[in-house]
Task: inverse folding
């Protein structure tokens, strides 16, 4: 049996992020819109937000009357 030929059309595509960053690549899809890219994701930018857990722990201890 002869294998089916797949003829994909990889055309130039623009991937647009919500931050305004535009990446050009080739894809079978048309224009793509994403919410997060490597230019604005906290892991890649190094601007990660730290969650203040100290306040949550104190609130938990206060709620259940736990004393250290």
Result:
């Amino acid at each position: 049996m002869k294998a089916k030929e797949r003829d994909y059309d990889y055309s130039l595509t623009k991937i647009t992020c919500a931050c305004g960053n535009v990446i050009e690549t080739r894809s079978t899809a048309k224009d793509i819109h994403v919410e997060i890219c490597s230019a604005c994701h906290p892991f890649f930018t190094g601007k990660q937000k730290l969650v203040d857990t100290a306040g949550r722990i104190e609130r938990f201890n206060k709620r259940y009357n736990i004393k250290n």
